Amino acid sequence: MLSSETIKRHSKVLIIGLLITSLTGCGTKTAASPNSRGQQAIPVQTAPVQTGDLNSINTLTGTVVSNLQTNIGSKSSGRVLSVDVNMGQDVHKGQVLATLDPSDLQRQLSQNQAQLQVDQAQLPSDQATYQQAQSDFQRYQTLFNNGAVSKADLDQYRLKMTTASAKIQMDESVINKDQAALSITQQQIDELTITSPVDGTVSTKNVEIGEQVSTSSNLFSIVQPSSLNVSVNVPEQMIGSIKQGTAASITLDGQSSNAIQGKVSKISPAMDSVSRAYPVQIDIASQNQTIKPGMTVTVQFNGLKSQPGIIIPVQAVVETTQGSEVFAVNNSVAHMHLIQLGAVNSDKAVVTSGLKAGENLVIAGQDLLSDGSNVRVVQSADQAGVNGLINQQKQSAQGAKK
Where is the CzcB-like barrel-sandwich hybrid domain (predicted)? Predict the structure, then answer.
């Protein structure tokens, strides 16, 4: 589909000239024509539909994409404290992208540290109790062996020693749990700092300072420059000339003198039902730091074989909600054709369906037409003549006001 600006640029002067020619003709008295009794004939300019080499017009619009995209979220929920990168910014592995508010977890960390200190403080006392109980048991063991104390006395000191040992084991278990809780809280705090896992470019940024995020939020996407390629939809009439390895020149907007070379790497075997074209992937031969994912580029395939087909001037196309339309004239009546466009350049377009060679196509005045309009084919006025007629009309209008 052509842009409205492209069509307006090609048809503006011709339409003005045709309208003025029609208006000035109204001032001349002539015999009534068949059209004058009914619908007013609209002046148009026509040109015959011709065939040409479809592959001579192989300029297509593509999009830079990346095969390697890393989506980055948060392992914790919380409020965003800072965002340290912008979309399109190059980042390196480990670079900080954003930070969440650590206030709650820092309070939890302080509580964990305090509890650990309390439990660790209990351990030396229990260790001293155990050492004393162990010493007492050993002393009573000697006395028992010499028959100085009873077995009941010895068992009493054995129980004290066993109880003291169990208390130390309990202390150590509690301390281990405290240390684990402390480590978990510290890890959660560390995870509040969101970093890039790869070198690349920020392709999307879905977070702002002050927002609440969850573990399901996708905050950033990072693409790796080495994985960039171009995706382009190739019309049906051209796809037969495209093979894996076909060379292509890729041009960024505003940098037509610095074409980047690439080669076709993948061709979809199925037509896209929306664009009515075949998706093709082009690998970029040499990476360029100015190329970013999402950029629109111009693609031109090199060395394609000649292929005959219908080519029309772009100014003949009228874009509507129904699609691309043109008008063909037959017996002074304009007939609307809904067409499918293929490749398009600055002044010509390939028609893939809806027209046949030899038809007379309206190339000026079509914006005033509807299907079945009566038309009058005229020659287009040159720019000087158009300006002169406009000035005459202005002077006539001013004279009428006086």
Answer: 72-222
- For the stretch 313-326, pLDDT in tens is 888 888 888 888 99
Regarding whether 200 and 262 lie in a shared domain, the answer is no
203 and 344 assigned to the same domain: no
Q: Are 14 and 134 members of one domain?
A: no
Q: Give the max Cα distance, the chain.
A: 153
Q: Which of the 8 DSSP states describes residue 315?
A: G
Residue 41 has pLDDT above 60, yes or no: yes
215 shares a domain with 93? yes
pTM above 0.70, yes or no: no
* Domain CATH number, residue 287: 2.40.30.170
Number of domains in the chain: 4
CA dihedral 79, 85, 91, 93 (to 10 degrees): -20
pLDDT digits (tens, 9 = 90+) for 375-401: 989 875 443 433 333 344 335 445 544
**Which long-range contacts does 208-212 make (Cβ < 8 Å, 24+ apart)?**
208/80, 208/83, 209/80, 209/81, 209/82, 209/83, 210/79, 210/80, 211/79, 211/80, 212/77, 212/78, 212/79, 212/80
Does residue 402 lie in a domain region?
A: no
pLDDT band at 108 (very low <50, low <70, confident <90, very high): very high
Identify which has the larger pLDDT, 239 or 287.
239
Q: What is the DSSP track for 53-93?
A: EGGG--EEEEEEEES-EEEEE-SS-EEEEEE---TT-EE-T
Contact in structure between 52 and 357 (CB atoms under 8 Å): no
